[in-house]
Amino acid sequence: MQYQDLIESVRTDARLDSNDHARETVSAVLTTVAHGIPPEDRTRLAEALPGSLEGAAEVPGPREPRDGAEVVTEIGRRLDVEAERARYLAQAVFGALRAEDPELADRIHGTLEADVREVLTPSGEASRRAESERGEVPTELSDAEVDQALRRLTGWTGDHTAISRTVQLPADRLEPLVNRVQRVAGERNDRAAVSRDSTDTVTFTLRTGRPGVVTEPDVELAEQIDRVVFEVGSGGHPG
After folding, report:
1. For 25-54, what is each residue's pLDDT tens digit?
2. What pLDDT band is residue 65 in, cutting at 50, 70 and 90?
3. How many CB atoms lie within 10 A of CB 2?
4. pLDDT on residue 204
5. Which of 31, 145, 170, 184 gives 20 to 30 Å between its CA and that of 22?
6. How far is CA 173 from the centre of its chain?
7. How would you write the chain as a 3-class SS string?
8. What contacts 24+ positions apart, CB below 8 Å, involve 167-172?
9. pLDDT exceeds 90 at position 163
C-alpha cells in the first residue's frame, strides 16, 4: 500500500485542503476502528499500512465492540467535526483503503458490528443520497441508524426515507403545539411537515430534501419536538 496514493485518495474524496489534513483524518479513523477489531487484525492492518501510518492501528488492549453511533462520535471528537462530517470522512478513508487493498478491507469489515459496517461503507449514490462531501451537507442515515435513533425518541416511527410522530392533545393545546414546533424548526433553518388528522390529533413528519431522506438534523429536530410536546402537553409554555 503506497502512502501517497492512500493520502491523496482521501484528500480528494473528502475534499480536504492538504495532505497533512488527510493524514490526520486517516489516523483518526483507523485508530478509532482499530479498537473494535481483534488484536491479530490490528497487527495485519498495521503491517499493510505505510510505515508512517502503522501506529494508527497499533492500539493496546482487547477488542472493544462499539456501535456505529459510538464510532462516529469518537471520530468526530478526534477530528473536531460534526457527526455528519465524521461519517463521511470515515467512508472516504475506508473507500481509499478498499481501493488499495480490497482483501484487507473485507477482512476488517467482517470483524465489525453490522451498524459499524453501515457507517463505513459509502453508498455509491452520492448525488441522490446527499453525502456530506462538505461539512455543512448532512449525510443520509441508514435504516439501522434510523432505527437506533428511534429508540431514544418518543413515539416516532419510520425508516431512512422519513420519520413521523402522531400527537393527541386537547384541541385548545394543539394550535400552540404546532406554532411552537414550527418556530423551533424555523430557528434551526429546518421544517416539519404538519398534518392535522382531526381536531385533537396532529402528525409531524421529518425528512431532508426531495426525494426525502432522514439525516442527523432530522433526528435532532425530533428530539426538540419531543421536548415541546412534553411542555405543551403538560400545560407549560403554550405560546
Report:
1. 999 999 998 888 888 888 888 888 887 787
2. confident
3. 10
4. 94
5. 145
6. 34
7. CCHHHHHHHHHHHCCCCCHHHHHHHHHHHHHHHHCCCCHHHHHHHHHHCCHHHHHHHCCCCCCCCCCHHHHHHHHHHHHCCCHHHHHHHHHHHHHHHHHHCHHHHHHHHHHCCHHHHHHHCCCCCHHHHCCCCCCCCCCECCHHHHHHHHCCCCCEEEECCEEEEEEECCHHHHHHHHHHHHHHHHHCCCCCEEEEEECCEEEEEECECCCCECEHHHHHHHHHHHHHHHHHHCCCCCC
8. 167/201, 167/202, 167/203, 167/204, 167/229, 167/233, 168/200, 168/201, 169/200, 169/202, 169/232, 169/233, 170/200, 171/199, 171/200
9. yes
* pLDDT tens per residue, range 167-197: 999 988 999 999 999 889 888 877 888 988 8
**Topology of domain 3-129, CATH:** Globin-like (1.10.490)
Q: What sign does the CA torsion over 224, 230, 236, 239 have?
A: positive
Residue 238 neighbours by CB under 8 Å, 6+ apart: 173, 176, 232
Instruction: Report the amino acid identity of residue 139.
Output: T
Instruction: Name every residue whose Cβ is closer than 8 Å to that of residue 120 and which is 6 or more positions away in sequence.
Output: 33, 71, 90, 91, 94, 109, 112
Are 84 and 140 contacting, i.e. CB atoms less than 8 angstroms apart? Answer: no
For residue 210, what pLDDT is reported? 58
Q: Decide if domain 143-233 falls under CATH 3.30.70.20.
A: no
